[in-house]
Amino acid sequence: MSRQIPAISAFLQLFIVAAFTILLNGVLPAHAETPFVGWPQAASDLPAESGVRFGMLPNGMRFAIMHNATPAGQVAIRFRIGAGSLQERDDQQGLAHFLEHMAFKGSTHVPEGEMIRTLQRLGLAFGADTNASTSYGETVYSLDLPEADVGTVSTGLMLMRETASELTLNAGAFDRERGVILSEEKLRDTPQYRGGIGFLNQLLPGQLVTQRPPIGKTDIISNAPVDLVRDYYRTNYRPERATLIVVGDIDAAAIEADIRNRFGNWTSNTPAPAATDLGVLEKHGERVGTVVVPGSATRVQIAWTRPYDASQDTVAKRRQQVIEGIGLAVLNRRISVLAQQPDAPFVTAQAGAQDVLKSARVMMIAADTNPDKWQAALAAIDREQRRIAEFGAAQSEIDREITEYRSMLQAAAGGAATRTSPDIAGSLVWSVGESVVFTSPADDLSLFDAATKGLTATEVNESLRRAFAGNGPQLVLQIPQMPEGGLAAVEKTYADSRATPVTAPSQTAAVEWPYTDFGKAGAVVERRVVDDLGVTMVRFGNGVRLTVKPTKLRADEILVRANIGGGRLDLPHDRPLPIWASSSVPLSGLKAIGYEDMQKALAGKVVGSDFSIRDNAFRFEGTTRPSDLATQLQLLTAYVSDPVYRPDVFKRVQQAYLNSLPQLQATPGSVVGRDLPGLLHSGDPRWTFPERAQLLDAKPEDFEAFLRPYLSKGQIEVIIAGDVEVDDAIRMTAETFGALPARPDAQGQAGNGDRLFPAPTAEPVVRLQDGRSDNAGALVAMPIGDFLSDLPRAAAANIAGAIFRNRLIDQFRVAEGATYSPQGDVDLSRAIPGYGFTYYYVETTPAKVDHFFDLVDRIAADLRDKDVSPDELTRARAPIVEEIKRSQQTNNYWLESLSNAQTDPRRLERIRGSVDNYQSLTAQDVRTIATKYLKRETAWRLKILPANGAAVR
Fold it and tell me: N or C, where is the chain less crowded by C-beta within 10 Å?
C-alpha cells in the first residue's frame, strides 16, 4: 500500500513530453460502433478496443472488464473515484488524500486492521499489490490479485464495495493516522517538489490547481475534525463519479454480473456537488520569473499556454496531436544533438506539449544545466525554439520521426496479446481520467499510419507555429540562489537572446549502420539442453557462452544481456575509480559511428544499449523484437569490441553528478540512497558514492584506462530470453559475439563477502541532511550471508524479514503513527560469496530515532524467544510465493536467473526449488534465523539527523 501522491514534477518537470505513444494516434476511416453510454466512445468516431466490456449501472457507476491471461491466473482491479484535491473545500485541504489512507482503516464488514491481513493471506504484498494514490482530480485504489479463483476475486470486489460507501471513518483511527500523513508530507517535501510547485504557481496564477496540492496543509492534517473527512466522503464518493476496472484471467460475463449485484444498490444521500471551478487561464504576453529553491537543480523553462481543450476525443483531434507531436519530436532531436556537443550548454533538455490537470494546454522547452551556465542554456533552447518556429522542420526530419514512432507502435501492436493485466488496467484508468477512447495497439498503429500518410512539412510547421502562439513565451528560471543582478539580470539575458537572429538549420546526410560483419561466424563446440527448464546452453570456440530461454510470455519481446568479466569484483579496492561514469559508455557511440548518427541509422529498429557495472559483471543489455534481434546483437557486440570514450560525454555525466550533490544532501532518504551501499561494504570504494573532490579530479582518460581492458579481455556470457527460436539465437550470436577473438572462459569469483559487511556499531554511525529540522532517518542492518550457498536459509531469512517488516508497520506506523512507510528487505548477494544482510529503515522525527532502535531490538528478541503464529507465517509467506510465481511469468526473471547458470549449477537449483523452499518452512525455521542472525551484538546502525545547513559534501 505504497500510497503515492504524484509530484507536480510528474506533470511539468523537464520531461513534460511523457506518453507520446498516446498522443501519436492518428486517423482511421470511421466505422459503426455500438454506443457505450457514459464512455467517451459513445460520442466519438474512434473505435474502442473490442476486447473490453464497457458498461454503466443504473446508478451511474461505470465499469470496464477485460479477459486477459498475462500473467495467467491473475487479476488486476482498479477502483477510480473522480475526485481528488481539486474537489476539497478550503477547510478540507489534504483530506482527499487523508480519506484514501482511511480506506484501509475499517469499514462496515471489515474491522480496522483486518483489510491488509486479509489481503496478505491471499498473497498480496503490502505496497506492491495493495496500493492507492490521490491526485488533483482522482483517487485510485488498486489490487493485483495473485489468483483468479472465485473466492479471491470476490474478496477484491468486496473490498472495493466497502471503499465505495461503507468506510467507518472512526475518530480514533483518524487521529492515529495524522502522524503517518505528516511523515509523508515531509517525505514528499524535496527540492524537486518545491521547484515543481513554484513553477506551476507561475504558470497558472490564480487557478485552483495552484491552491490544491494533494498533500494539503499541515495545520488541517493536524487539527481537522473527523467530520470534515466524513463530509468529503459523503459528497464525493458517489456512483456517478466512480469507475471499476477488472482485467485478468476471468469470465467477463460472470464478473459483470457480480459487479451489478454488488454495486447496484450503491446510492448517494447527498445532493450532487457543483462542477469544480478550476479558474480561468490568464492571458499574457512575454513573462520572466524565477523560482529560488535551495538544494535544487538549475532548470531553464520556457512555456506557452493556451486554454484546455475539453472537446470530445475524435479522429480530427488526435490527428492534430499527431502533427504537433511529430514537430516537437524534431525539435527534441535537434536539442539532443546540442547536448552531445563538446562543452554543451546543458546536461539534458527536452520539449513537449501536455494537457495539465484540465487547466491548460502547455507547450514547454526546458533544460537542466549548471548553476553558472544558465545563461548559455537559456540562449540555446531559445535559439532552437525560434529556429524551428521561423524555418520549420525539413521533410527528412519529419520522415525520420515518423519511422521511429511507427516502429514503437508496431512493437506495441505485436505484443498486444501478452500485455499484462496491471498495465491494461492502468491504461484504462488513465483513459477515464483524460476522457479519451481506449483504443487498441493495433488500431493505434493503423490510426498513426493513416494520419501520417503523405504528411508534409508545411502541415507540421503550421502546427508548430500554432503551438508557440499561445500565452507567452514565459521564462521561468529555477535556481538554488538568485543570480547576481536578480530578476532584472534574467530579463536582460532573455531579451538579449531573443534579439539575436537565428539562421536556418543545416541538414545532415543519411548514414548506414556499419557493424554488420564481425568476421567468420563462431563454431559451436558445446550445446546442451536443460529439459525441465526449457533452456539451451551453448559454448562457442572463442570461449563465449550463450544461454537461451525461449518463451511466449510476451509476444514480440526479446531481452538480450551480455555479461563481460567480473564487474566490481574485478576492480582494485584500494582506490576510487570513476565507476559512476558508466552511463557515458552508450552515449559516446562507437568508433565507426557517433551516437547521433547511430540513432539515425537505426531509426525504425527496436533495439537498446544500456550499460552498467554490476557486482560480478560489466553488463550491456537491450530489449528488442524478433525481426530486430540480429541488429540488437550487432549493437551490443560493437559496444564490447569497438567502443569509443568521448571526453565531452564523460564531462557531461560528471557535471550531472556534481549538479546532483545538493539534492542528495536534502533529505534523509536521499542521503541513505547515496551513502548506504558504501557504508554496508565497509567503505570499499567500489561501492562508495564519489565525493565532490573525487568528481572534480576525475579525468576522461582515467575512465577509459580502467574500463577498456576489462571490456576487451573479459569473458563473455550472452543470455537471450523471450519470443525467440533457439536456432536463430545461436546463429545470430555466432555471427556477432561468437565471431570475436578468443576470450578466457568464465571463472569463479574469490569469496570475501564475510569481510565486506561493516563491524557492529556500539553507537550509531551519524550522517547529516540539509533539509527540514523535523525530519530524520534511522536504519538497522544485520549480516546473514549470501543467497546461493544455502537456499533453504535464504528462504527462511526472507520470511523472517517479511514478518519483521510487518511488525514494524503494525507498531511504528499503524499504532504509533510515527512514520509513513517503514522499509525493509533481505538482500542476500547472488554474486559475492558470504555477503548479505537484512535491513530496516524509517523516516521519522529526530526525537523518535532512538525509540525506533529500541523497537527493532524488541521485535528481534520476540522472534528469537517465541514461535510466530501460523497466521503470521502465512501472511509473510503467501505474498512472497505469489511474487515468485508472478515474476516467473516475465522474461526478465529468466534473464536474471540464468546469469552465470552455465558455470554455477546452484542457480538452476534455485529456479527449480524457488517455491518449494518457501512452502516447506516452519515457525521453527524462522526462529532459527532470528536466533542466529537477528541480534543486537551483530547489528550495524545509522542515524541521519538534520544539520540545519551544516552538512557539506
Answer: C
469-520 pLDDT per residue, tens: 989 999 999 999 999 999 999 999 999 999 999 999 988 888 999 999 999 9
Cell numbers for 607: 533495439
Q: Strand, coil or helix: what is 540? A: strand
Q: How confident is the model at residue 751 (pLDDT cuts 50, 70, 90)?
A: low
CB neighbours (10 Å) of residue 950? 8
Number of helical (H) and strand (E) elements in the chain, helices listed first? 32, 23
pLDDT, tens digit (0-9, with 9 covering 90-100), for 371-389: 999 999 999 999 999 999 9
Please report which helix (H) or strand (E) contains residue 472, including its range. Answer: strand 471-479
- Residue 510: the pLDDT is 87
- Res 128: pLDDT: 74
Q: Which of 140, 308, 279, 301 is nearest to 209 (CA)?
A: 279
pLDDT reported for residue 37: 83
Q: What is the pLDDT of residue 750?
A: 53
Of residues 481, 491, 888, 540, the one with CA closest to residue 730: 540
Cα angle, residue 394 at apex, residues 392 and 396 outer, rounded to 5°: 160
Can you tell me the distance from the alpha carbon of 460 to that of 691, in angstroms, rounded to the nearest whole number?
A: 47
Q: What is the mean pLDDT of residues 230-235?
A: 98
The C-alpha cell 515531509 sits at 186
**Measured distance CA(569)–CA(494) in Å, rounded:** 50
Q: Nearest to residue 584, comparing CAs of 706, 705, 700, 710?
A: 700
Peptide bond before residue 71 is cis, with ω within 30 degrees of 0: yes
97: Cα within 13 Å, side-chain hemisphere: 28
Inter-CA distances, 548 with 540, 616, 625, Å: 14, 20, 15
Residue 191, classified by CB atoms within 10 Å of its CB into exposed (0-12), middle (13-18) or buried (19+), is buried
Task: Kindly tell me the burial class for residue 353, based on how many C-beta atoms sit within 10 Å of its own C-beta (0-12, 13-18, 19 or more).
Answer: buried
Four-point Cα dihedral 169, 174, 180, 182, nearest 10: 120
Helix (H, G, I), strand (E, B) or coil at 25: coil
Render pLDDT for 677-703 as a digit per residue (tens, 0 to 9).
Answer: 999 999 999 999 999 999 999 999 999
Q: Are 125 and 136 in contact (CB under 8 A)?
A: no
Cβ–Cβ under 8 Å, residues 326 and 402: yes
| Set of cell numbers at residue 502 | 537565428
| CA 451/CA 405 separation, integer angstroms | 12
664-679 confidence digits (pLDDT tens): 999 999 999 999 999 9
d(CA 875, CA 204): 47
Q: How far apart are CA 116 and CA 150, in angstroms?
A: 19
From 108, 109, 155, 151, select the one nearest 130 (Cα to Cα): 155
Distance CA(298)–CA(279), nearest Å, equals 30
Are 694 and 576 in contact by the 8 Å Cβ rule? The answer is: yes
The mean pLDDT value for 800-824 works out to: 95
390 touches 334 (CB < 8 A): no
Residue 171 is predicted with a pLDDT of 97
Residues in the chain, total? 953
Tell me the whole-structure pTM to 2 decimals. 0.92
> What is the rounded CA–CA span in Å between residue 184 and residue 116?
19
The pLDDT tens digits for 462-473 are: 999 999 998 999
CA-based nearest residue to 635, from 737, 563, 740: 737
Q: Cα dist. 593→399, 458, 611 in Å? A: 21, 32, 18
- Using CA atoms, how far apart are residues 144 and 138, in angstroms rounded to an integer? 19
* Whether pLDDT at 66 is above 60: yes
Asked if 522 and 738 count as a contact pair (C-beta separation under 8 A), the reply is: yes
Q: Which residue, chain included where needed, has cell 536467473?
A: 897
Set of cell numbers at residue 477: 528560471
- 123-152 confidence digits (pLDDT tens): 998 777 789 999 999 999 999 999 999 999
Contacts of 16 (CB under 8 A, 6+ apart): 350, 352, 353, 354, 362, 364, 366
